[in-house]
Amino acid sequence: MMGKVSTCPRIKKDWEDRAEGMKNCNFTYHCLPDNDGVLREVCIEKTLLKGGYCPYITSTGQLNWKNCSFSEKCPNSSYVSDEVYKYPVCYQNLFTNQRDSIDPSSGKTTFDTDQSSPEEVNIEAVVVPVLIVVVLVVAIIVTVVVAYRKNFHGFRNLVQKRILRRSGSPQQSGPMEGVAFLSGQEATTPRNGRRKTFKNDRSVESEKKLEAVNKLYSLVLFLKDLPKKCGINIEQIVKETKYLYKKSFINDLNSDELQWLETGDFEVLTNSTVFTFLTNLCGFEKSRKGWENKPFDKDVSLEADIARIRILWNGMCDGSVDEKTIRETFQRLRDRYGEIPISNVETMGSKEKINWKQLKPDCEADKDVVLTEKVKDIFQKLEEGDLVVCSGVIGSGKSEALKYVVEKYRKDGWKVEWVEKIPPFTDKQKESGKKVPSTDILKELLCCDNLFGDVAYEKFTLEQLKSVKDLLEACSQCRKDSKTKKFKLLVSVHKHVLQELEKDRRENFDSLKNFNFTVDMDRLSSAELYHIFKTTIRKGCLSHKDCWYEKTDFSPVETKLKNNSGKVGNPFLLMAFSKNHSLFADDTFPKKTIGVLVVNFQRLRSEEPKSFYILLYILFIREHRKGNALKEWAHELPTPLNKEDLDDVGNTDIAAYLHHEGDTIRISHEVFQIALFQCISTHDIDMILKFCELHTMLSICRPKDDPEEFSVKVDDNDTKELKSRDQCKDLIIKTGHPFKRYFESETTLSD
Q1: Percent helix / strand / coil, the chain, rounded to 5
Q2: 383 and 335 housed in the same domain
Q3: How far apart are CA 271 and CA 352, in angstroms?
Q4: 213 in a domain, yes or no?
Q5: Are residues 468 and 391 in the same domain?
Q6: pTM for this one?
Q7: Same domain as 237, residue 342
Q8: Domains in the chain: how many in total?
Q9: Who contacts 729 (Cβ-Cβ below 8 Å, separation ≥6)?
Q10: Minimal CA–CA distance to 111: which of 95, 90, 87?
Q11: Other C-beta atoms within 10 Å of 42: how many?
Q12: How far is residue 556's CA from residue 576's CA, in Å, rounded to a whole number?
């Protein structure tokens, strides 16, 4: 469909009105000059043009483009061909660097040429050479015609053989090599009439092949509509592509294609890009022979037909048209998805084969565990040495990483032991040679999460450092004694505790660092954070009906993560967002995480006291098993609790702060624990000192002048509760806890 017009629209609204008025247009409305300067309206497939070029219509109705850099108003960036109305220069002459304009009355291009001439033209000098050339051309034509008719020296037979040979060859020159042989060129029929039916036979054959090629071209275009036909959310996939396949697409696509990919406008993408997108990101399972190979003939699945379209198209580009397979594939897809508009391959520009590439995501996940570079680093360093220390702020994902690594080692035949602290070595053990690991196990992994607790203190820390040092020395000796025996130690330490160790106990800590391979868990890429974001949504939004956070784009989430003060890890923030959506709505949460949680718990205490004291009870005893009787002091809380209150806790609003493992319940994260402790310490510090499990209380509480940031500060006047608890004094003195100073004066007086 191509018609001559006097003017083309120059603004968007007029262009859209003209496009709406064009009937039976299966592609996109265009109004462009042809190569004679005549304005034409045509319905063709739009394409992406580079800056410095203007489109025009060829004599065959195809879209082509010409350099317009001679003008300062030439487009300087990429644009789609149906937006050419933005660039008036493209309606000037494209075939000369002289300025020109469109004559609205005639629809033809007029040129601004220099009419002045300083000298008169010598007409005789021009006409005589022209006449000589004309006479020579006529003479040659007459000679050729006479020679053909008289068949001098077999000239006529030679010409006919050449014509027959050429009409039977599919290799024709032109913009669509391998397709031009369908143009209907025919051989000359000999006078004797023996090949009288040759012309008709060739016409029928050419028409069938042209029909097949048009169907194949229609199938290639159909691939661009396939995601919509299959109900695939292109917008969501593009968002994931932007984060998970950024490296692959930056390497494989130019900036213009990346831009148009984000808009989801497949029509302007190359066929290769569309095919790569479909086969890598839209969830289609590859056929048994893969995307890059020809499918089995008996495989008529959708995935096989997608791969088959590429193979057929590339074969056509090489001059081979498999008419039967094209018709069968076209019919199957039409039966599956309804009518497929037939497109004319001659409206296409130059041919290009469809290339396929395997995209590799920037980050992958194994079930619900995101395989960050840090996780891979742990595996690598465990291979290289006996000890790996994972350090990071609270909530950086250390525990999840350790669990994943431990499970992989267990499946690989290692004996794995998970401990809360490294057991000390006795002198008897060292002398007898009975050193960890046990002698009858060839491969053993010892894992200790949160090695020095939430907040380190002197004697306990020194004992642990000494135990780790002794253990590593035993491992080293074991490796010398037995080449087949392997033992490894995997631990995690909070970064603020590690910094405290380096600052206050440098001499002892250096001995540990001599053996140490440290993995810093804090730094994560956008792809890794996006994967964690999707994982936490799957876990956290299960209990939320019509969850609005589940539909949240990652872009605003990433912006909030960039405001993280660095006191807690981004994985914790993502987990907190998914479990309590109000925290995501609070812009101050990433900056003042503990403070915001304390305010939330204070509000919970005021509005729902029973829920608050259920959390506090579980915090104080560390974990509760459903069905077990409560501690006697549960009745002494400001809101008394009974067993039934904790058995039904999974259905309450506080479930977001709890972790359920079988019948056991505990506070789901250390950050929630710290915030709960600080919340209750404001007015009821005596409850912590009186009821909280002894080791838990000593790990979080410090004297008022202690600089430790996450600790609960205890005033000298509040220590009477400590002195009244059984075994408290002995444990404080034994471990060298900072509270030791409160008891030293008593010891001196008694002495």
Answers
A1: 50, 10, 35
A2: no
A3: 8
A4: yes
A5: yes
A6: 0.65
A7: yes
A8: 4
A9: 722, 723, 743
A10: 95
A11: 21
A12: 15
